[in-house]
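Agenda item 2: S-adenosylmethionine complex prediction
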Amino acid sequence: MNSEPNGVKEERYYFLSVLHTFKSYREQSMLRVQHKEKCLETLPYHHKEWLLKYKEDLENFKKCIEKNYSFIPLVLKHAHTIFDNMYCNDSTSHSEQEVGTLSEGLDKVQSVFKQLMRDWSELGAAERKQCYGPIINEIFANFPEEKFDRSNINVLVPGAGLGRLAFEIASKGFSCQGNEFNLYMLIVSYYVLNVCKKVNEYKVYPWIHQYCNNIKADDQMLSVRFPDVIPKPTPEKVYTTDDEWHCVATCFFIDCAPNVVQFIETIYRILKPGGLWINLGPLLYHYSDMRNEKSIEPSFKVVTQVINNVGFIMEKCETGVKTKYCQNPKSMLQYEYDSVFFVCRKPVSVDIIETTEESPELQKQYLFANKRDHSGAAIGPHFMLSSSHF
Ligand SMILES: C[S@@+](CC[C@H](N)C(=O)[O-])C[C@H]1O[C@@H](n2cnc3c(N)ncnc32)[C@H](O)[C@@H]1O
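Presented output:
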């Protein structure tokens, strides 16, 4: 008889299907190219003749997909370690084949390659300077080394992606925790942060799945090497468990909630009195087009009112901050966000505001949980494993 609680079983199922989806990357991505090859075959003879170079390009795309795929088994070898084997230590474990792949999974695997470019390649340095630079500078300015023992300053980075922002903050001596609920990101960031040993050891093709807006096929096959630096583990204590933070740093994150107000309230609640919230990003509300989600999309003006109503004091606010996100520099389509950058402070003396009807314990446990997706975990040497969901 299996006495395992339902939640654990679901998490294990989810974990296995993520692994299976990673493994299906090659096959599923090849299907797209094979479909193009079939389309090409149906064309009149002279079209085919004129499109011989395109046919050759498709062959080369397949080679890039193979190369991306060769990274996946390396990463998956360590995936079980991340959660102390909690997903594979019982006799009732189902095989990955049994649980199948996830419909949204291919996209997630493909976007991990782009995120590797943003967070861990030299080519991503410009994006990181735009997006992470202002946040890091603000943290440094508020906690100067001469005045603070930075190892006692707890910084939380919700929606940490592949962990570079959290890593940068931690490498300057802060106690920093990255929180991420996307298992695809967690599995890959664990590998980069804990296993990668040589600079620029690996090569991937981040934009190989972007078939449109290419001047030449080589632009689709632009490769990057990673990691551009080796994240070194630090032995000291870096984390406190009281869920009280001196600083919360969010980058391209607050629009990931169906209800941004809930994120703002949570950030307020977990900050220490006098604590700082630093944010940079657009309002590309992620749930906006999802029919089954109760998504709201307030303008930034309304968001600022909410921020005040929650109790924050906005100390700095800039709009029109030029930022890119996983952008192929060669593409004919260039997205650039006019992001907002703001710094808010929770007043030193605050009135307790009751924000939800849940018990305080439950509130603490779930932190930012808006959607029970899977185990949220913190990543890397400075980024302790945390089971909280944002
Ligand atoms: C747009 S990405 C930004 C990643 C990173 N901050 C950056 O700037 O590259 C948003 C990230 O937040 C994560 N995320 C979204 N909702 C979350 C939640 N409720 N709890 C934890 N992470 C979340 C996503 O999985 C994704 O990795």
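Discussion summary: DSSP finds 15 helices and eight strands in the chain.
Owner for follow-up: CH.
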